[in-house]
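TA notes. Do not distribute before section.
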Amino acid sequence: MDILIPSWFKGSEIFIDFFSFIVLSIFFILSLKYYKLCKKKNFLYLGIGFLLIAVAQLASIFTKFVLYYDTSFTQNIGQMVITYRVVKSVDIFYYAGFFFQKLLTLLGFYLIYRLPLKKKFSGDFMLALYFIILSALVSITSTYFFHITVLILLIFITINYYNVYRENKNINTKILIFGFIILIIGEILFSVTNPQSIAFIFANIIELIGYSVLLVLIIRILYCKHCDTIKNSAKARKGRNGQKKR
């Protein structure tokens, strides 16, 4: 199995995936921290959604590293596979790695899609999970199908949060929508370009920018929360001092 991208970009692609993994992991950690402060489950679930995508990036990094570079690990896997006559190469390892990468990515985005909906998780989640697994299986051999599926999910996610923004007019929701729109642009490029084209490389960079915008958002939320805590503490101290003077 091979990935048809320019050979000179292979190392850079792994670096971008790794940076995306770091950004998404930090997003999860900060979301968890904010949840502990405010007890708002939506931020916890949002963080878990991006954690799934972060783990998917890690699976992609590991699989691509073994695929791109001739390592002793690759040779050992190959010997094992040949010994047991499962397949004639290490393709099974690559297929498994990319399957989990796509499955976790789709699950992560689906979880984020469900967040703004008032309807709780029910039996339809199992139906959605079934189609997500099918999509991940098909996506192993068709990256275009995978990116189109992610694109559709992102469009629905953006529509959901736009409806939320129309109600609350919150700047944080607006930034979140902006981040998702950037990801949509990246997925459009992934869906219509050849992996060996320059546009494919731009798509990777755009995707990274989109995740970075979401990271800036959660940092902003935590900073505002921290400032509010300081202000409230100052007001409380001022109130106590005023009572003492009386």
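Switch to the second chain here.
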Amino acid sequence: MIKTAIDTISLALLLALAGCGAEKTFSVALPLDDYTTLNPIVCQDGDTAEILNQLFEGLTAVTRDNKVELLEAAAVDVSADKRTYIFTLRDDIKWTDGTPVTAFDYEYSFMQMLNPARASEMAKSLYIVKNAIDYNEGRAAVDSVGIKALDALHLKIDLQEPSLYLLNVLAALFPVNKKTELANLKWADKVDTLTYTKAKVY
């Protein structure tokens, strides 16, 4: 199913990265096997997650020496009670279709991970968010969840309780292109409709 696309994705990544600068060429190793989906919202196995880590980026990242740093976020403001985080996104991150990555993409993606209809394994990672558990289990309205895009570059996350782990959690949660997914829920099943951010090297 996805296996045939992986070879093509590997080649496409090499070409795209080489095109970013004549002086730099990066090689991205993608293991070949059968995968469930390359959609970060519903990824459910470790092998697929390994590929997603090379195709997508999150607001934060964990470096090789286990330090958390901002990645697609340029800054984060934390409230005094440690319950509210407002992330300012970088304005230079783009999807492979050339459109900018926005806070609306993040809001949509995180809310879809919590959407009971999607049955996403990633939902539990967001249970520290205000009303996330109740929404995921069908006891709260969608607009009560503490995830809001304030505008294209600002994402607000309200927590149920203060947490020291939010930045770590966000390193493993990747956005999807909202416009692409709304147009085609199977966008991640074919290489010609696959959109991602970029491969990264730490």
